[in-house]
Amino acid sequence: MYKLFIRPILFLFDPEKVHYFTFSVIKFIHKIPGVPALIRSIYKVEDERLEKEVFGLKFKNPVGLAAGFDKDARLFNEFSNFGFGFIEIGTLTPKPQPGNPKKRLFRLKSDSAIVNRMGFNNGGVEDAVERLKKNKGVLIGGNIGKNKVTPNEDAVNDYKICFETLYEYVDYFVVNVSSPNTPNLRALQDKEPLKHLLHTLQELNTQKTIQKPILLKIAPDLTDEQLLDIIEIVKDTKIAGVIATNTTISRDGLISENKKETGGLSGKPLTNRATEVIRFLANRSDKAFPIIGVGGIHSAEDAIEKLEAGADLVQVYTGFIYEGPKLVKEINKALLR
Prior knowledge:
By secondary structure, the chain is α/β, with parallel strands linked by helices. The chain has one domain: Alpha-Beta Barrel (TIM Barrel), CATH 3.20.20. Helix content is 38%, strand content 16%. The strands form three sheets. Strands 3-4-7-8-9-10-12-13 form an eight-stranded parallel beta barrel, surrounded by five helices. Strands 5-6-11 form a three-stranded antiparallel sheet. The chain has a two-stranded antiparallel ribbon with strand order 1-2. The longest helix has 16 residues.
């Protein structure tokens, strides 16, 4: 029904406007008595065999909603009804920021892909916390970044602010230094700046009564040498794991008319590269740390491929847009089979 009727209509309109329209619809229908229970009955798959314990947290199933979809933590309770085992909010920054000028979100229909250059548009971390206080038991990841106006030499302070502000309200943290849409952000992936940033956050973490898992989200465009550095950094800083991968700046093999739009590419063109990165990290580290696999998951087979490559959990984003909410159910059903 989604791909036959709903998606063709939604795809007639500007993708960013559709995103906010869809949020409004989901928010509205969840206020109708009985609808949340109906949605859960259609999409939610509950089975003890799907449960996984990863970096000390118990996930009801291994399929999550990737960061960027519910940036400002507006619909995490509602999205959990579609069967997700966890929701990652953000990327959040210390201060609100509008992001990059519009138009900044593009569908590449012929490639089943999306290009975005949103630029960490969000209402700021304190604004999101007010909504996170209303969490009804959803396992939440907090994806954190720096404000655009903050120079790289001061970036650590932005991450510290986000960490401290979110600490009580999320189950794990994700350090985002791999988005291509904030100027110079990816320079923080270099070995020494990254070690400094992660060590600083780990020091804050160890001062807490209960430590929260800290993960690093990496780009798919890293070389093998850089990936070996990531393995060394994870071991050195003792962070909990890695999310592989963020969007790519590569445009190899695209056929859509708007393929030259600048920004991060997500969707089917990323499927193989994300899996390669997962496999490389898992094999070369001898599975020394957990990996959340994300990038180009448009089917249950795509998800299983990433899990078999070495991922412990998976996340969807663009596949959720192209395939619809049944994708989460299909992955969980396939895992049970």
